[in-house]
Predict the structure.
Amino acid sequence: MAKTFAANTAPSGSKFKFGVEVPVGTVHALKLDAENGNTAWRDAIETEIKQINQFQTFRLPRASDDLSEYQRIPYHFVFDVKFDGRRKARLVAGGNVTDPLKEDIYSGVTGLESVRLAFLLAAQNDLQVCAADIGNAFLNGRTREKIVIKLKREFGPELAGKDVIIDRSLYGLRSSAARFHEHLSTRLKTMGFLPSKADPDLWMKDCGDHYEYITRWVDDVLVYGKDPMAVLQELRRDYVLKGVGIPEYYLGGDLVELDNSWKSTGIKTALSAKTYIRNVVEKYEKLFNETFKSQKSPMNHLYHPELDETPFLDQKGVSIFRGLVGSANWMITLGRFDVQYATGANARFSAFP
C-alpha cells in the first residue's frame, strides 16, 4: 500500500506543453531559468505574488480569531505555458486536504456549442462582439472556509514564516470556483441579464427590440450586443478586465470576420483552429528538432497503433505523448473533426505508449 501511494503521489517526471518544459515546483522553475539563461519563471512567480497582495488575499489573525477552528493547509505554485509562450505561475492552496464541504461547490462554464450559437445570433441581429478576461477572478469572492497557512520566503522577510488567514477565494480551495461563479452571477443579474434555459452560463437580456448575450468560461467573457463596450464598462466597476476588444482568439480558437465575398452568401464569422495548430506545431518542431512534413491524410491507412512493437517510452516520452494527444483533442473541440479518428486511435495508449 505504501509503494502504491508513493507511485501515485510522487512527481511523474517532466511535463511539456507546447513543447516547453513546465516546472513541477518553485525550485524546479528557478533551475529551468538558470538552464535557459532567463528569468521567465521567476518573473511569473513575482507577478502572481504582487497580484495576491493587491487583492489582500490574506490577513493576519486578530485577537478575536480562534485558530483552533481553522484548518491548517499547505500551498504551492502551479506553473503553465500559455498558447503564445507566456509563462504563468498560480499560487494554489492545498484544498484537497480540507474536510469535504456541505455547501454546493459546483461551477459551470458555457458550452462551445452555446458560443457558436451566440455568434450565429449576433450575425442574424447585427450585434457586435467584445471579449474580456477577468484578472485574478477567484480573488474577487470571499471564502467562507476557515483556513490558515504559513507563508514561505517568496513573500519576503516581513511575512515569511507567519501564519495568515485566507480571506479571499484563493485558487485551490474547494469552494473558490463556486464563490466566483456566484459573485459574477449576482453581478450579471443586477445588470438585467438572466441565464438561458438551454445553458445556464449563456446569459440573456431583453432590450425590447433585440436580446443581448453574455457567454462565460470561468473568467473569460464574451459580450454580444449593440454596444458591448458599455456592458464591459459596467463590469469594470467590480472587476479588473484584461484583453478587452474585438475577439480574435477565444479558448484556443480563431474568430475571423470574413470579407464581403463570404458575407454575400450569408456567412459572416469563421471559427477555426489555425493559430492554435500553428503555435503547437512550432513548439513541437522545436522540441523534436525537426520540421514536420505536410500530410494529405490525417492518418496513414496502413498504420495500426495496436500492432506497434517499438520500445515503450520512458517517463519523459510518456509526458510528451500525452501532450500531443491533448493538443490534438483540443483541435477536435475547435472543429477539426478530420483528425478525430487518428487522435482517438493513439489516445487509447496514453497510459503506456
